[in-house]
Amino acid sequence: MSDINVASCAQAPVLKERGQREVFCGLTSIIWLHRKMQDAFFLVVGSRTCAHLLQSAAGVMIFAEPRFGTAILEETDLAGLADAHQELDREVDRLLSRRPDIRQLFLVGSCPSEVIKLDLSTAAERLTKKYAPAVRVLNFTGSGIETTFTQGEDECLTAMVPTLNESPDRQLLVVGALPDVVEDQMRSLLDALGIGPVRVLPASGADQIVSVGPNTYFAMTQPFLGETHSALLRRGAEHIPAPFPFGAEGTTAWLKAIVDKFGVSADLFEQVVAAPRARAEKAIAQASETLCNKSVFFFPDSQLEIPLARFLTVECGMIALEVGTPFLHRPLVGPDLELMTEGPVISEGQDVDRQLDRALERRADLTVCGLGLANPLEAEGLTTKWAIELVFTPVHFYEQAGDLAGLFSRPLRRRAILRQEAAE
Ligand code: SF4
What we know:
The protein has helices at about 30-35, 50-60, 75-80, 85-100, 110-115, 120-130, 150-160, 180-190, 225-235, 245-260, 265-290, 305-315, 330-340, 350-360, 370-380, 385-390, 400-424, and strands spanning about 15-20, 40-45, 70, 105-110, 135-140, 165, 170-175, 200, 210, 215-220, 240, 295-300, 320-325, 345-350, 365-370, 385. The protein is an alpha/beta fold. The chain has three domains: about 10-20 and about 275-424, Nitrogenase molybdenum iron protein domain (Rossmann fold, 3-Layer(aba) Sandwich); about 25-145, 3-Layer(aba) Sandwich (Rossmann fold), CATH 3.40.50.1980; about 165-260, Nitrogenase molybdenum iron protein domain (Rossmann fold, 3-Layer(aba) Sandwich). It is globular. The N and C termini lie far apart (about 45 Å). The mean pLDDT is about 90. It binds iron/sulfur cluster.
């Protein structure tokens, strides 16, 4: 029986910090979005730096033509000496005549396009008129001035919401880009529970109907989609608040919130989830042998921090010292905060020097942080986990629960082996 006197993190004060931050920009989201949306092209309007970031983050594509690229703003554009809109139109003409497979084109803003105040929404409207109905042109920003790296997806999906068809149907909309294999697992669970129709945003192709309306219930699979959440509420849809589907308990709670809305019987629910939940619990228990009673410190990075801290503390027995997040969207992460016992510092935003001081003073067994901070912290003797790996690895739902726990236990095991070898 749970102790009702124990306060949860939902009531805990939040340490708000505003200072220098160490995160990738929103362009990074293009790496997983272009894999998900098979007929979309992401045209970054930016500098050579933006092109380099995309190239190095995505690796070199050998077998397929890439579905992202950069329209480089030259010095004449930046100095206002050339008409950047005309050049952009020429670039889009060239691209679309060469690539008839493109059905959705995203013009993606960057720091340079923000600085020269290039109006990409007007450009998107103009180009949509020109290329409709074959191609839909939308715009969003991935600028590092305005976004952290997962916010690129939030900006992209927010741009799509006004274009969704209106539907009066009672339906479930699942929001957030998931790897195809994970999406298939989710769909088969919802199908077995008799829930449908199920729509997913983003869909893999423009021909798949994604609709929204007053009888649409939506569930989020990613905690960094705060603006998308607001945009869907504006379209009249109703959010189903729930812990995020990480681990056995998180996935069960997420599904339970949905079945309660759709009136599924408790018997059918138990029948469908019993076996995969048991598999997930077993897999987590194995990895938890390494994680139990170890401490963890999260730097703010992907916005997955709060749901992951819930998973690590509640399901793996870890002790969270600080859980930092770039933004704290209570309507999204509130249910995860409710499940965590008060104790860790919950911080929002970043002042990286002050946070580094706290991390070095607390010396957690495991520190989850961005790539730029990992090496300096390792040099100080701390064990680190790259936060970005958690976004690129399939980690949602029952079948990935063991892998998710394994992502955190591996660095601890590696450190233990190194220590042992050094002692011998
Ligand atoms: S958008 Fe800004 S932060 Fe991102 S790569 Fe381009 S210049 Fe750098």
